[in-house]
Design a protein that fits this description.
Shape: elongated
Order of helices and strands: HHHHEHEHEHEHEHEHEEH
Distance between the termini: 10 Å
CATH superfamily: P-loop containing nucleotide triphosphate hydrolases
CATH topology: Rossmann fold
Number of strands: 8
CATH architecture: 3-Layer(aba) Sandwich
Helix content: 40-55%
Structural class: alpha/beta
Strand order of the largest sheet: 3-2-4-1-5-6-7-8
């Protein structure tokens, strides 16, 4: 998890040669780490200011300086499930980020905590998506509501909520289509689903929208988050392949530009490999303290 970047940052901070070439190297490293030009210059300026005030800086002091600069941009959101009502998680994400597997991991997490969980196969544009979700549902041991491939996703969501409410379920996880080649269509489709959820009496306390992004995609994650956030106002992110995270700067940029928190992280291939996101270990790893 971001150890490669953190190790290089720690190594650079150990040099103690604060000339112009040092700061050029620092800025180059931060840019390579997907922190973007604005944050890069902000951090570089803070390091310069600290160096002017104190000459005998330790590596740890420099690492902590960067960590404190980044801390306000990393947010967490740990969902709370109301056992006395139906909670709906709308799970979004482009094809290939591990969205369907992530849904199965969330289902298992809450099922093992004693919650009644149902899946809704609202990614109806790919027959394989419905089949995949059904396989996961069977393996995890939860119920699935589905229709034929090509069905109206809104109708699937409507039926799933109706069924879950009638059965007294506590959590409904809705899989959605991950097509991004047509932004207008994406916005319309998500707005329709959003409206259906609300007309079924699910208020904002019990309705949360999560975007799954691949931790390893860097700047692509920021562009995906921006598009989906504009389309449906996301509540939080879920990071797949978090155990393979090499840089982590793009996550800082998402927090800085969109203010979006992170809820869950996928740390392996198995159904049990899902954890709540914690900011401190992430930041420590990012700056090489871990």
């Amino acid at each position: 998890m971001a150890k490669g970047f953190g190790a290089r940052l720690k190594s650079l901070f150990g040099i103690k040669r604060f000339d112009e070439s040092y700061f050029e190297e620092l800025e180059e490293l931060l840019i390579e780490g997907d922190l973007g030009s604005k944050l890069t210059m902000q951090i570089s300026d803070e390091v310069r200011n600290l160096v002017r005030k104190k000459k005998d800086l330790t590596t740890r002091e420099l690492q902590l300086l960067v960590k404190e600069q980044l801390r306000p941009m990393v947010h967490t959101f740990h969902p709370v499930i109301d056992r006395n009502a139906l909670n709906v998680f709308l799970i979004l994400g482009v094809n290939g980020v591990g969205k369907t597997t992530t849904i199965a991991k969330i289902a298992r997490l809450y099922k093992t905590q004693g919650y009644s969980v149902t899946l809704a196969a609202a990614d109806t544009f790919r027959a394989a998506a419905i089949d995949q979700l059904e396989v996961h549902a069977n393996r995890v041991g939860v119920r699935i509501v589905k229709q034929e491939s090509g069905s109206d996703p809104g109708a699937v969501v409507f039926d799933a909520i109706t069924s879950a409410q009638a059965r007294g379920d506590q959590l409904l996880l809705v899989d959605t289509a991950g097509r991004m080649h047509n932004k207008e269509h994406l916005v319309r489709e998500l707005a329709k689903i959003d409206k259906i959820v609300q007309t079924k009496g699910i208020d904002s306390v019990h309705y949360k929208k999560f975007l799954v992004i691949d931790s390893t995609t860097g700047q692509n994650g920021l562009s995906q988050a921006t598009i989906f956030h504009q389309a449906i106002r996301l509540d939080a992110l879920i990071l797949s392949k978090y155990d393979s995270l090499a840089k982590g700067g793009a996550l800082i940029q998402i927090g800085d530009s969109l203010g979006l928190p992170i809820s869950f992280v996928g740390v392996g291939e198995k159904y049990g490999d899902l954890e709540l996101f914690e900011a401190e270990p992430f930041l420590d790893s990012l700056v090489g303290l871990a």
